[in-house]
Amino acid sequence: MGGITTFSYRDAVKLMGASEHKAVAVLDKLLGGTLLAGSVLGIPDVLSWFDAKADLIRFSHEYAVKLSEKRSGISRYDRTQRLHAAHTVIVLVSFFEVVDESGVPFSTADLGFLQKDGVSLAKVLPELAGLATSPVPLVSPERPYEDNLEALTRYYRGLAVGMTSFVRGLAVWDDMDERQRGLLDDLHEAACRRYEENIRRLAVDCPEFAFWSSSQDHQATRVVVRTALAEVERLFATLTVGNTPQQRRAELAHWYHSVLDSPIIAPGEVPDGLTIPLFRDCYIDPRFQVGHPSGPAQTQSWKSLPVRTDAHDFFVGYLTSPKATQVPLLVLGDPGSGKSVLTKVLSARLPATDFLPLRVELRTAPTEADLVQQLEHSLRTVLDEPVTWADFARSADGALPVVFLDGFDELLQATGVSQTNYLKRIEQFQHDSAAKRRPVAVIVTSRISVADRATIPDQSTIMRLAPFDAEQTGRWVQAWNDANGASLDVATVLAYPELAEQPLLLLMLALYNALQPLSGTISEAQLYEQLLVSFARREIDKDVEEHSPEHVEEAVEHELQRLSVVALAMFNRGTQWIEEHELDRDLAALLGERPERTGTRKPLGPGEAVLGRFFFIQRAQAVRDEQVLRTYEFLHATFSEYLVARFVWRTLENLLHAEKSASRLNRSRALDDSELYSLLSFAPLSSRQPVIRFLDELAGESAIRADLAAMLLRIFYPANRHRDKTDYEPVPFTCRADTPSTAPTS
Fold first, then answer.
1. Which helix (H) or strand (E) holds 446?
2. How many helices (H) and strands (E) does the chain have?
3. CATH number at residue 381
């Protein structure tokens, strides 16, 4: 696919045509038939445009107003196209206005000799030769206002250079004084100022222009912490052009809107006695960055882009812009950053008169199906009846379908490379749909960690959800306290920034506080231990029939060991997620779990999702050939790093206990440290600094620190001795030729 399609002046006037507006025919006649013709302008043609510039200006303003004022009887897509055309006209007419006012005295009668006689204008002055046919820049809501003006200034500079070169080749140049020649040098800046004046006047009746350009008029409101994207609904109410929705659209709109009055988490998932706030009260409008950085999965790539707080302005501008129906918008975020909730709340806020949303959870869609089949799978689920995509799109009745594809990362992680061109296929789908007069906007969400594994269309806008700042965290805590009459202390929450900056982790912190009030005096290791223990105990209490304290504590410890194996699986493979079949293998090697085990310690066998019940574990899921494929990832890397440190520490404690027991029986027997050796043979603990920090905290709180240090020194010196190979092998060993194949090299 090519770049974003923008209109030329000729495209813009053809959109309406002479049959709808007589000025088009009159202007075409004044311009010698060059307006609607398909040819490149020659020298006389260009001069005819400047000869008729007064009429061109007058008719263009009239035409732009005519294009933009019509609201009733057209679709949301047609409204966008007409505004696009009106913008194109305003861009070009602004240039002609400043040329007219500059007093440059030339017309057809002033035509002298070009410096290169006989050379066509198209070769000498391509800027002016394409006056009617070259695409005109379109402002974009993804760029700051100043960047939009800079793009227009570059365009005007090209026209001004062409204009100056053109006039230099005419006999009239010799008659011009220095003031008049100086005016030509400043044409691009004057044209940009005139554009601002013209578009500001037009935006009074067509507010979309202000949202497209990210104009300064809206920047004063961007510091307010808002909730539930309520401003999106209010702003769209001022732009509506559609009709009252028919039954299917009305049902779907009501279904999506109902999420606003739903609790942010199912009541059955929380401790008794808590009142869970609603989405409309507790969903905090995100801070975000937008652009198209190289390497979008790398945090460093986003450093130069400003963080914005005007999500309402951005979405209104984007969904009313031509770009929305040409390429997908990609929304990236960390696990727990609120990507899925964003699609729920935004689909609830889109007015049914102008938009027809469809949310598709890709984790439940068949991965082997094409995009249309995935859409139809979701339609059948939501509407309780089979509906083809074509019929659904036709039923829009002027509203613009907006498809939310939630969880693209789940396809990538669970299915590998087979979906790397998925975004390009979406772009082609949008192109084909527009060609069939069934335009569609598409918004795709994905975890940022997998973004580099996908081929992203060149012109796609990428939106990154930024972590909460202190104001957002405070607003969320206020909503939580308002619902519960509780006093979750903001200052205490902010003492743990890694948990306070992501919505889902913040919820976890609030739930933990309901069980055991937070204290800002405990160490980070103690906090993570208490968090993990409390949530594991809650899950055990749901499943365990025997409630003796000893049994529960044993079950809790086993759950934490499982979680630690998940963390080690990622750590030793150098990845941020782990596939279920790899995890099954590691659980069997380290904990001896097998699929046939029953009781409270249920293994993670194929098709099971025991770990998915924990807040701090994110499960990616896809369905292929009716088989569920899963991967696991921690909501925040710190959970994984603590669990790695915890497992290593527990292994050291067990090893010290074994040494002391063995020393009483047989002092000459070598200590079997094969498990510790295997755990530490694949990745250095120092590769994650927090792991070392947590180990230091655990050791600092332990009475056996000195004994452990002495033991480690004793087993360090013979570290290269032969050991029996264990079953734990997350990645294949590389063995030296002189080393027995049963022993790993370090």
1. strand 441-447
2. 31, 9
3. 3.40.50
Residue 257 tokens read as: 């809107």
Strand partners, 402: 357, 441
Continuous segment of H or E residues that includes residue 23: helix 22-30
For residues 481 and 433, state if they share a domain.
Answer: no
Task: State the DSSP code for 617.
Answer: E
Amino acid 746: pLDDT: 38
SS3 195: helix
Alpha helical stretches, state H, 395-464:
408-415, 422-435
Tell me the pTM: 0.84
State the Cα–Cα distance between residues 241 and 399, nearest whole angstrom.
9
Sign (positive or negative) of CA dihedral 325, 327, 329, 335: positive
What secondary structure letter does DSSP report for 40? Answer: P
- Of the three residues 402, 436, 466, the one that is the final residue of a domain is 466
* Position 744 in a domain: no
User: What is the residue-averaged pLDDT of the chain?
Assistant: 83
The total domain count for the chain is 3
The alpha carbon of 680 is separated from its chain's Cα centroid by a whole number of angstroms, namely 36
User: Are 303 and 360 contained in the same domain?
Assistant: yes
Quote the tokens at residue 495.
């003492």
Sheet holding 617-624, edge to edge: 578-579, 627-634, 617-624
Instruction: Say if residues 102 and 180 touch (Cβ distance below 8 Å).
Output: yes
**CA-to-CA distance for 41 and 284, rounded, in angstroms?**
54
Structure tokens at 278: 């609603």
The reply to whether 703 falls in a domain is no
**Which tokens in the block code for residue 164?**
């100056």
Task: Determine phi and psi for 344, rounding to 5 degrees.
Answer: -65, -45
Is residue 711 domain-resident?
Answer: no
Which structural domain, as residue segments, surrounds residue 370? Answer: 287-466
pLDDT, tens digit, 9 for 90 and up, residues 585-595 = 999 999 987 65
CA atoms within 13 A on the CB side of 558: 19
Find the helix packing angle between 145-168 and 178-185, rounded to 10°: 140
Task: Report the relative pairing of strands 462-465 and 400-406 from DSSP bridges.
Answer: unpaired
Q: Mind listing the pLDDT tens digit for each residue in 161-206?
A: 887 887 777 777 888 888 888 888 888 999 999 999 999 988 888 8
How are strands ordered across the β-sheet holding 329-333?
Answer: 288-291, 462-465, 329-333, 441-447, 400-406, 355-361
Do 160 and 25 reside in the same domain of the chain?
A: yes
Residue 329 CA to chain centroid, in angstroms?
Answer: 7
405: helix, coil or strand?
strand
Beta strand residue intervals within 100-224, DSSP E: none
How many angstroms separate the most distant Cα atoms in the chain? 115
Among 422, 446, 466, the domain-final residue is 466
In terms of domains, do 314 and 359 share one?
Answer: yes
CB 735 within 8 A of CB 741: yes
Nearest partner of 365 among 655, 64, 626, judged by Cα: 626
Same domain, 430 and 321: yes
Q: Cβ contacts of residue 417 below 8 Å, gap of 6+?
A: 453
CA distance 667 to 426: 68
For residue 444, tell me if it sits in a domain.
yes
CA nearest neighbour of 1 among 328, 332, 452, 368: 328
Q: Cα–chain-centroid distance for residue 121?
A: 46
| 3-state SS, one letter per residue, for 234-262 | HHHHCCCCCCCCCHHHHHHHHHHHHHHHC
- The 10s digit of each residue's pLDDT in 513-552 is 888 888 767 788 988 999 899 888 888 877 656 667 888 8
- DSSP helix/strand/coil, 503: helix
8 Å CB contact between 577 and 633 = yes
3-state DSSP call for residue 634?
Answer: strand
3-state secondary structure 532-563: HHHHHHHHHHHHCCCCCHHHHHHHHHHHHHHH
Distances 736 to 188, 681, 739 between C-alpha atoms, Å = 70, 15, 5
* Element at 314 (helix H, strand E): helix 311-319
